[in-house]
Write a structure and sequence with these properties.
alpha/beta; Rossmann fold; Dehydroquinate synthase-like, alpha domain; 2 domains; six-stranded parallel β-sheet; two-stranded antiparallel ribbon; about 55% helix; about 10% strand; globular
């Protein structure tokens, strides 16, 4: 038996911030990073909240939120006792907000509503039961999964992403595609998650290059914002896989942006997974659904078309090679493979990979990547 549930209420499009009018005479705690705290975007958010609310702000958010950040947030939440928590920013801010609320509730600290407002189009964290917390001392990212991590509300306003730089737009867009592909070939995929993943992939292939080169196009930004949420809904139900299990290690060990790490691994993981017949057929089906090849193409031809299109997409979006991405860290790659392999095997996302991956397979993939 498979289950499917939608637990986050979505509000999308220009003007969707107006739903915040429902919060009056509340203590609202906004969690964002230091950059957003001093940007016009935060003032836009504050301006959308009725004036009779008390507003507090937590800004100790860094890329790849750490255990220390979450602990600090829990302490502040315990002190403030807000009614509403708003996670505002990219995946790091949303993940931190969700983790802080989740752990705080376990300590008996309740809130009325958790709101997620993404300012990048990538992680889909606004609609997922997942978040990723980093242990900086061990260089490991820990993905957490629990139905209580779902935000109560998500606001998808494309005006918040028009100023996102091209490289971040590219990286986060590739994260969306990875979510869609991994959900699609997951053993837990269903007709419901397939529909979400297919649509997300179609949007990425069509609109991501435009979003990278013409970031001020609200219509295109809206499409990518929706794609991120669609893919997030898909993988939250179906799970992820080997791509994310290894990408978390590239982020933990070398501090590569998450979307970039996924992009660098994507085709290598697809080739590996395609060694399993069901995964091959599903990759082929997705390629045909995205019109990357004729409907009568063989499975192998469709797979090749998918891989080639991903390479073309990476080139159009100026995704760097792994050598350029790693810079001087290239010399440390081989010595860190054993640590990355061990952590990848323990990563929760590996459980829903369509093909079993042991230490030898992951080691070989990492060795061939460089």
């Amino acid at each position: 038996m498979k289950t499917f549930s939608l637990q986050t209420r979505l509000y999308s499009g220009i003007g969707s911030l107006k739903v915040l009018n429902r919060f009056t005479h509340r203590h609202i705690w906004i969690i964002c990073d230091g950059f957003l705290a001093h940007s016009p975007l935060l003032e836009t958010l504050r301006g959308a909240l009725p004036a009779d609310n008390k507003i507090s702000i937590f800004t100790d958010i860094t890329p790849d939120p750490t255990i220390e950040t979450v602990v600090k947030g829990i302490a502040q939440m315990q002190s403030l006792r807000p009614d509403v928590v708003i996670g505002f920013g990219g995946g790091s801010a949303l993940d931190a907000a969700k983790a802080i609320v989740w752990f705080s509730r376990q300590f008996g600290i309740e809130i009325e509503t958790c709101v997620a407002i993404p300012t990048t189009s990538g992680t889909g964290s606004e609609v997922t039961s997942a978040c990723v917390i980093s242990d900086t001392q061990k260089g490991i990212k820990y993905p957490l999964f629990d139905k209580e991590l779902y935000p109560d509300m998500a606001i998808l306003d494309p005006s918040f992403v028009v100023s996102v730089p091209a490289n971040i737009t590219a990286n986060t867009g590739m994260d969306v595609l990875t979510h869609a592909l991994e959900a699609y070939v997951s053993p837990r995929a269903s007709d419901f998650t397939d529909a979400l993943a297919e649509k997300a992939a179609q949007i990425v292939f069509q609109y991501l290059p435009v979003a990278v080169t013409k970031g001020d196009c609200l219509a295109t930004r809206g499409k990518m914002h929706n794609a991120a949420t669609l893919a997030g809904m898909a993988f939250s139900q179906a799970g992820l896989g080997l791509n994310h299990a290894i990408a978390h290690q590239l982020g933990g060990q070398f501090h590569l942006p998450h979307g970039l790490a996924n992009a660098l691994l994507l085709n290598a993981v697809i080739r590996f997974n395609a060694g399993e017949l069901r995964a091959l057929k599903r990759y082929a089906r997705l390629a045909k659904a995205c019109h990357l090849c004729p409907d009568n193409a063989s499975d192998n031809a469709a797979l090749s078309a998918l891989i080639q299109r991903i390479e073309s997409l990476k080139k159009a979006c100026a995704i760097p090679s792994i050598h350029i991405a790693l810079k001087e860290n290239t010399m440390h790659w081989s010595q860190r493979i054993p640590v990355m392999v061990e952590a990848a095997l323990a990563d929760a996302t590996l459980k829903t990979n369509p093909r079993a991956a042991n230490a030898s397979a992951i080691c070989e993939l990492l060795e061939e990547l460089l």
